[in-house]
């Protein structure tokens, strides 16, 4: 394993320390130094009084998800776990507390057994303390119904859209019920599917998580390297993109005349030049269905460490979701 | 080779087509379809009347450099060549023409023999047509004095700082001489050095550009995978970072009390979590010298296809450069 790390056991903390120092104007990382409270990433300027808080989190290794989305118009706090490991309930509870100024908090949870359980425990704790907390579970991955880590579908890159749009609804002044409702509407209308060209290497393990031949790829890969639908021989980008777009569009039941956000996401080790090739192919496939790609995002936002590969996420838009997507956002990783 | 491409020979054009479609509000890619003129990337809204134009370009494979920096506050046009190959003079000349509204154009050129030659030819052509054109050559890489591609030092990630600051000076209303002078001041005060953990694979070649053992890294790597200073055994991030920061800081002659921009750049295949570890280590090394890290940038901006690795760039700041760095920028890859 060759990685730019010191102690693999402290990879998350060392990275967060650099992140905090580089972006002190935007974020504050709580709990890095001892003695201190639980580890989570909050806004440098603290929670916004009167606004519904929006909090997310999960295992590390998917950066910039979630810490890179803390800031105006998106998340109030993000909770990192160890690499590919759910954050503990005390961390989640601390983040919920920090994001709560009395208007309630929405917790955005990717559908993994550990995340769902730990967030549930933390939410109960926060509620027992008097906070109003609602939860939305993201399960956008159409690849598999259950997996090593999940009952039901996995939450993957579509999570970004849920966080962005819920964050914008909160800024707009929506109540907790309203923010939760719009987040739920995103979940109902977003689907994703990914492909791995290589496996990723968890620092503390030191070797790739699975073997993939020099001439095969894994279609429907999960963001922890968990198995997808099937392995196929390496093929041109057009063919691979079709294997991602078709299941996504079919599952969404996209009809001619609809408008969508098309998000092509890199898994961490794939250069942006290749992501744009996939984007161009995916866009054409959607247009062949009569679908209008009204909004676009291309980049490595929901990653799997150093994995090479990409995912395609499609969100069905309506006027409200489009407006909330367009609303200003100012975070480390998303800014417009 | 596993890459998300269709025809490796059309990798640049296919990628640019996706880029153009994804960012139609910001950029326009000229010359993609036949019959058409030379290939270059301009602003969607065209050149800004009365403003000095700023143009850059070079071989592809370093994305988002340069096309990702086209837009308000940075470049007016970018000229892509084939992968790791200088753009032809006709492309450069077309970009210079597009960026010229009568106030003159600054060409930002990375110091590679082919780039220098082809830009020179294009600049002469544009001048013969009556345009005022100045050139600044970036040679920030302290690793080697000459290389396979270069007489003198290579231009690497410091180019981003030159483009950002020259672009801001042009927006401020500086004359061509003034924009060229401030760009020259950035070149005089910026230094970089990189490390490769893996080689990159040029699509049309199909295999890694060099062999690097499972337990060694190349210190002082160039952005085309050309050799650096030496190979060393893989080491913790702190040690590797010192091998990058010390030559950069020494060459700059940084003194206690100075303020700098610290830019940790990913080579394309390295996840941001590792870049933040390097950033944290580099920052501490600079602080140990009494230097203040006043501005920061962390991300994969000047890449070498899928290479794993990172570079450290340090720019000595003064009040003017700091203000120009902070000035608003709105491009695909940089936005604040």
TrEMBL record, chains A, B:
Keywords: Glycerol metabolism, Kinase, Transferase
Domain DhaK: 7-336
GO MF: glycerone kinase activity; phosphoenolpyruvate-glycerone phosphotransferase activity
Pathway where this protein functions: Polyol metabolism; glycerol degradation
Reaction(s) catalysed (UniProt annotation): dihydroxyacetone + phosphoenolpyruvate = dihydroxyacetone phosphate + pyruvate
Broadest EC class assigned to this enzyme: transferase
A single cellular component GO annotation: cytosol
Organism expressing this protein natively: Xylanimonas oleitrophica
GO biological process: glycerol catabolic process
Pfam families membership: Dak1 (PF02733)
Record-given protein name: phosphoenolpyruvate--glycerone phosphotransferase
EC number of the protein: 2.7.1.121
Quaternary context: Homodimer. The dihydroxyacetone kinase complex is composed of a homodimer of DhaM, a homodimer of DhaK and the subunit DhaL.
């Amino acid at each position: 394993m060759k990685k730019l790390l010191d102690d693999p056991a402290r990879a998350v903390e060392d990275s967060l320390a650099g992140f905090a120092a580089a972006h002190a104007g935007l974020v504050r990382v709580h709990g890095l130094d001892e003695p201190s409270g639980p580890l989570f990433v909050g806004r440098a300027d603290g929670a916004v009084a009167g606004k519904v808080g929006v909090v997310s989190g999960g295992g590390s290794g998917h950066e910039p998800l979630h810490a890179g989305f803390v800031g105006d118009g998106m998340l109030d706090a993000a909770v990192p776990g160890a690499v590919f490991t759910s954050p503990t309930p005390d961390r989640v509870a601390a983040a919920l507390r920090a994001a709560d100024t009395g208007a309630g908090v929405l917790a955005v949870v990717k559908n993994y057994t550990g995340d769902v359980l730990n967030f549930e425990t933390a939410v109960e704790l926060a509620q027992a303390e008097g906070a109003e907390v609602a939860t939305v579970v993201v399960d956008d991955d159409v690849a598999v119904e259950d997996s090593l880590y999940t009952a039901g579908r996995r939450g993957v890159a579509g999570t970004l859209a849920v966080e962005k749009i819920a964050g914008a609804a909160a800024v707009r002044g929506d109540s907790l019920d309203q923010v939760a409702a719009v987040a739920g509407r995103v979940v109902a209308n977003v689907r994703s599917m990914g492909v791995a060209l290589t496996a990723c290497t968890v620092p503390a393990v030191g070797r790739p998580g699975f073997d993939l031949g020099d001439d095969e790829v894994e279609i429907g890969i999960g963001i922890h390297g968990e198995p997808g639908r099937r392995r196929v021989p390496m093929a041109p980008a057009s063919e691979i993109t079709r294997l991602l777009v078709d299941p996504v569009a079919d599952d969404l039941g996209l009809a001619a005349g609809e408008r969508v956000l098309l998000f092509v996401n890199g898994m961490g080790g794939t250069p942006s030049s290749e992501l744009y090739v996939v984007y161009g192919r995916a866009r054409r496939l959607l247009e062949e269905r009569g679908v209008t790609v009204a909004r676009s995002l291309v980049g490595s936002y929901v990653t799997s460490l150093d994995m090479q590969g990409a995912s395609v996420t499609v969100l069905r838009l309506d006027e409200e979701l489009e407006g909330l997507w367009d609303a200003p956002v100012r975070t480390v990783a998303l800014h417009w």
